[in-house]
Amino acid sequence: MRNFSLSLIGSAIMILCSSSASAFDWSEATIEQLHQSLNNKDITCEEVVQGYLKRIDAFDKNGPKLNSFITVNPEALIAAREKDKQLDKHQPLFCVPLVVKDNINTKDMPTSLGSSALKNSQPPANAKVVDNLINQGAIILGKANLDEFAIAMLGLSSAGGQTLNPYILTNGPGGSSGGTGTAVSASLAMVGLGTDTGGSIRIPAAVAGLTGIRPSRALSELTGVAPLSKTQDTVGPMCRKVSDCARILMFTEAWSTPERKQQIMNAAVKDGLKNARIALISGMFPQRTKDNRTYYQVIDSALEAMRNAGATIDIVSLPEQEQIINGFKSLAGYELKQGLNEYLTSWSSDKDGHPRSFDEILTRRGYAPTTEEWLTLYNSLSDKRNDDPVYKKNIQGRAGFIRAQLNRVMNGEVQYDAVLYPTLTELNMPIGKNTEGRKNVGLSSFSGLPAISFMAGMTQDTQPQPVALEFLGQEFSEPKLIGLVHGYELHHPVRVAPAITPELKSAPVSADKKP
């Protein structure tokens, strides 16, 4: 019954995409547009992948040199040719070109974690989420750059160098999934996978004008994913349209049913803002100043659009907000060492010679600036964590405390569909600087509840850049959150493609040319 239900979902997607013939544009293309072009025989899967490989060469390796990829899949064209030979083309993700963060295992490409110490690290099996997506028809274009070991949020690694922001090249890409964010925003891939421990999907999505989903922690499939904090880690999609994220999310959850998958797909076409009730947490917005006027212009316009679309937005206070936002701490520093030890010993080093322990990683050197400082600190924190009162405070009761306060907001006298706040409380920062406005993302990271960061709009100034808002809901409420974001896209479309990565007018690379 399960396979039959998934087949129906795939068939429904293809039917929806078969309306009218249109030329395929790589820039900003969605999964729906891809399937429409393939269904109408306007393009082949091989030509689709050729086009993306050409964009990677033109914009990532040359031109602005965005530096979002560490590895380009040398087998991508071969996989595309096999798709063209395939008789049944009704897979939900048929020929969807995907970029995967380079801390998610791939058996045919190294998984470096952004570290030169692991540049030849070759796990023998795909991560479960990668297998799931390939089995539904996706093609892995390559591995995305990330902050080394996913520790920081600067988009910098010793294996991949510095990733750039596609809107303002002198600004940072966010992290740690900055490579995925830049690659998807610049249309070097159709969709991407990131990991989010303390905001690492939502922050790069925010500064790259994307939608990024941090799923319910209880639903996150982490088999074959290098850990940062086993307590907080999640895997999720990063996309230009929330409908694309929904199509990926269906196959990245650890526990799901055909009925839930259908709920996710239904949400991706729903006007979720109509009659929605949203709790805006006033204390999570920055104070208005003359310096953040352009930031607030975007926020104000977004809230007006939601209300005009039929949503009721009430301004509320979050109980114990100071404790929630400033009183808790990420567990990454306490859990990375043990997690890496387990990960590095999960396959033999006989063939690839990869380091087998955190201590061996620590002694190899050659890391990006500040990485060695982080590793040294985390080594100390890990060894003493059981006696550390900060660790005990954050491992015991943190999630329950935050959920209790959110429950007081969402299920009090008024029932709310979601709470709303800005992903970042300030505009993006130049390369090498960490934004101080990122604390809001901890609400989801520390509670284990799902959240979606989405593009609220672009600033209207000399250097326009994205501003993002975030919906957070009850556990397992991803379909409801997806519906809210889709409603926003319907009534207030704001996505603007980066000007530095336009559509390439020439034909795709020759079929004989190797990627």
**How are the strands of the biggest sheet laid out side by side?**
1-3-2-6-8-7-12-13-11-9-10
The dominant shape is globular
- DSSP helix fraction: 25-40%
Quaternary structure of the protein: single chain
- Strand content range: 5-15%
- Which spans of ≥5 residues are poorly predicted at pLDDT below 50? 1-8, 10-22, 509-515
Number of strands: 13
Largest sheet: 11 strands, mixed
Radius of gyration: 22 Å
Average pLDDT metric: 94
Structural class: alpha/beta
The number of helical runs is 18
Give the key terms:
515 residues, alpha/beta, 11-stranded mixed beta sheet, 13 strands, disordered N terminus, disordered C terminus
Give a written overview of the molecule.
- 36% of the residues lie in helices and 12% in strands.
- The protein has 515 residues and is of the alpha/beta class.
- It has an 11-stranded mixed beta sheet with strand order 1-3-2-6-8-7-12-13-11-9-10, sandwiched between helices. The chain has a two-stranded antiparallel sheet with strand order 4-5.
Explain the layout of strands and helices.
Elements: H1 2-16, H2 31-39, H3 45-61, E1 69-72, H4 76-85, E2 97-101, H5 128-135, E3 139-144, E4 156-157, E5 161-162, H6 178-185, E6 191-195, H7 202-207, E7 211-214, E8 235-239, H8 242-249, H9 258-267, E9 277-281, H10 293-308, E10 312-316, H11 321-326, H12 332-344, H13 358-364, H14 371-383, H15 389-395, H16 398-410, E11 418-422, H17 442-447, E12 451-458, E13 466-472, H18 478-491
Parallel strand pairs: 2-3, 2-6, 9-10, 9-11
Antiparallel strand pairs: 1-3, 4-5, 6-8, 7-8, 7-12, 11-13, 12-13
Helix pairs in contact: 1-9, 3-4, 9-18, 12-14
